[in-house]
Backbone:
């Protein structure tokens, strides 16, 4: 169902509550990667330029102890936002109360403020994360309109997304541009793709990805499987996998998936093995029929890269989730680089990465600008690829 987007709202002189995803990585109180803040700028700028008053907020990490109140303040993100906007972002170190309410009421059109980490409300009974009805109602009462641009938390039903949406009033909530982009790209790729749709799945565990595999086996024309996941499938085919990562309790499921796949699922034909999980261990490439009993597979081999590249070359839409090998170690990054290369060489295809580590891999290996879309939400994009409805999206007013 089509959802309102921020351009459907009249924001002029309105107090616009804006849920952003500023759950950024930090080290010693310093932001180490501000991608998520940058990604929220278009929506924030749009509202400010159209005379709205922005009240931005986000969660940051998990808040469980009094100590977290000292270390998990979202103030550094407000400061970074201010630098990026070239405009003051007033920060209120509270999630409720007189100081917050006063700051909101003093806000002028075209001004922006931020309040404290929404998960500070979790210390006393998980009010934010359990969507305490009073909290959503209270936050909604602070503004006139609600814009949700936090795709990264759209798979969660929290007070700061669905709680506010439920209380802000009919027709008064909308998706921001980032949310709109994520829904459009991932939604269209899976539900109405230009075919052939080739899905590439990898990463650590079959158990994390069962839903994605099942959905994509139905929706995609081909499903290429790499990563540690491949070994559970190889075992399902009765092959020896040495000391590779295998989920013993998922072998039967892998068998069932292979049967259902009807030839759509393509497994690697070779793998790079080493005696231990170590970049500097002596490694070699072997056929999947000859994995030594005392070695583990840490990447797909050159023949597999060639095989996968051929499949990718025919694609009009590519969805990629999960690295092909232990890309963090240079000696086992070739499979993931190979997939990146094959995707980068595609002309006129829509190419999408969903998944935190796959996105990190593409960035780390220098391929970020070769993709049509890299999702900012690891967990949310996974659930979306599974074909699940995201509560944060569902709760937004329909067009
Ligand atoms: P994403 O976040 O993109 O969904 P995952 O979290 O499922 O991806 O998996 C990423 C991790 O899988 C990476 O840390 C990578 O090192 C690991 N991995 C990939 N292949 C292997 C392998 N053959 N053996 C062990 N770990 C692997
Ligand atoms: Mg991951």
Residues:
């Amino acid at each position: 169902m089509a959802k309102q987007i921020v351009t459907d709202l009249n924001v002029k002189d309105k107090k616009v509550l804006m849920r952003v995803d500023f759950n950024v990585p930090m080290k010693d109180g310093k932001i180490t990667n501000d991608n998520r803040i940058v990604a929220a700028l278009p929506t924030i700028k749009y509202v400010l330029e159209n005379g709205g008053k922005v009240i931005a907020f986000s969660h940051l990490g998990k808040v469980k102890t009094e100590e977290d109140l000292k270390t998990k303040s979202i103030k550094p993100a407000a400061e970074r936002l201010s630098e990026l906007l070239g405009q003051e972002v007033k920060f209120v170190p509270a999630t409720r109360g007189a100081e917050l309410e006063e700051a909101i009421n003093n806000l002028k059109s075209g001004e922006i403020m931020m309040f404290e980490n929404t998960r500070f409300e979790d210390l006393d009974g998980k009010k934010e994360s359990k969507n305490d009805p009073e909290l959503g109602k209270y936050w909604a009462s602070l503004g006139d309109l609600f814009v949700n641009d936090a795709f990264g938390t759209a798979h969660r039903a929290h007070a700061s997304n669905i709680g506010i949406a439920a209380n802000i009033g009919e027709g008064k909530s909308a998706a921001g541009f980032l949310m709109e982009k994520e829904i459009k790209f991932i939604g269209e790729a899976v539900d109405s793709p230009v075919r052939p749709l080739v899905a590439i799945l990898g990463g650590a565990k079959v158990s994390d990805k069962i839903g994605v595999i099942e959905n994509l086996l139905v929706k995609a024309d081909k499903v290429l499987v790499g990563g540690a996941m491949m070994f559970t499938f190889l075992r399902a085919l009765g092959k020896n996998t040495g000391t590779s990562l295998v989920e013993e309790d998922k072998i039967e499921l892998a068998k069932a998936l292979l049967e259902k796949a009807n030839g759509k699922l393509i497994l690697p034909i070779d793998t790079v093995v080493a005696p231990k999980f170590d970049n500097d261990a002596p490694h070699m490439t072997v056929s999947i029929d000859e994995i030594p009993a005392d070695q583990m597979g840490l990447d797909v081999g050159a023949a597999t890269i060639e095989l996968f590249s051929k499949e990718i070359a025919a694609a009009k839409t590519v969805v990629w989730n999960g690295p092909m090998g232990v890309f963090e170690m240079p000696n086992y990054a070739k499979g993931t680089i190979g997939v990146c290369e094959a995707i980068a060489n595609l002309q006129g295809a829509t190419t999408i990465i969903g998944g935190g580590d796959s996105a990190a891999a593409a960035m780390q290996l220098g391929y970020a600008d070769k993709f049509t879309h890299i999702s900012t939400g690891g967990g949310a994009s996974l659930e979306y690829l599974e074909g699940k409805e995201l509560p944060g999206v569902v709760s937004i007013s329909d067009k």
